[in-house]
Amino acid sequence: MCVTIPRQVVRVWADRAEVLVEGVPREVVCAGLDGLAPGDFVLLHADAAIERLTADEAREALAFLAAMEALLDNPDGVDALLAFGPQSAPTGR
């Protein structure tokens, strides 16, 4: 399974951009994302920016990923993850 992670752009030139990955700058390919600018958020996969996100979309995705990570640390904390899904979880009946 592949996961794309939202990252913030800090610099752009030609078909390349520099994004922050856990606070560390990383050069990535951004071909096809015309008009990309510092401060924008992108989905990053395999050192390629594949889609632009709004700041709200990036925050929501990062919050969801943090909830998933917390769930791996504490399987009893499934309620935090369900906050991102439908309001009524299936009962399994």
| Biggest sheet details | 5 strands, antiparallel
Indicate the CATH class.
Answer: Mainly Beta
List segments where confidence is low: pLDDT < 50 over at least 5 consecutive residues: none
Our measurement of the CA-to-CA distance between the termini, rounded to an integer number of angstroms, reads 29 Å
Shape: elongated
Oligomer: single chain
Please write the string of helix (H) and strand (E) elements.
EEEEEHH
Determine the strand fraction and express it as a percent band: 25-35%
How many distinct beta strands?
Answer: 5
Radius of gyration: 16 Å
| CATH topology title | SH3 type barrels
- The secondary-structure class comes to alpha+beta
Q: Tally the helices.
A: 2
Q: How many separate structural domains?
A: 1
State the helicity in percent bands: 25-40%
